[in-house]
Amino acid sequence: MLNQTVLVGRIVSDPEINETKNDKKVTTIPLAVQRSYKNEEGEYATDFIPCVLWDGVAQNVVEYCKKGDLIGVKGRIQSSVDKIQVIAEKVTFLSSNKQTYQN
């Protein structure tokens, strides 16, 4: 079985680093991803997808990215009873001087 997703979108809010009880660094960024088709009003709808970034990926995104930056995220979808999120494995900075960072 395969659980892999690739998203390209804009960061909705400035990323901030947090630390867990085990001193692991983490950030969750909402990513605005535009759909590839127009709705009934002739506009492209946008999905807001929460992406969780850990350790080095999280640190680099917090250091080099800000609200509105375009990034690519490769990762896996994780779901629980009341939420779905993407756990990022690799982030590509598409509107920044830095190119790629992965775990």
Proportion of strand residues: over 45%
Helix content: under 10%
**Total domains, how many?**
1
What low-confidence regions span 5 or more consecutive residues with pLDDT below 50?
none
CATH architecture classification: Beta Barrel
CATH topology, by name, is OB fold (Dihydrolipoamide Acetyltransferase, E2P)
A few lines on this structure:
This protein is mostly beta strands. The protein has one helix spanning 55-64; strands at 5-11, 18-19, 25-38, 44-54, 70-79, 84-93, 100-102.
Notes on the structure:
The protein has one domain (5-35, 46-102): Nucleic acid-binding proteins (OB fold (Dihydrolipoamide Acetyltransferase, E2P), Beta Barrel), CATH 2.40.50. With 103 residues, it is mostly beta strands. The protein is globular and about 50 Å long. It has 1 helix and 7 strands, in the order ββββαβββ. It has a 5-stranded mixed β-barrel with strand order 1-3-4-6-5.
Name the features.
single chain, 103 residues, mainly beta, OB fold (Dihydrolipoamide Acetyltransferase, E2P), five-stranded mixed barrel, 1 helix, 7 strands, globular
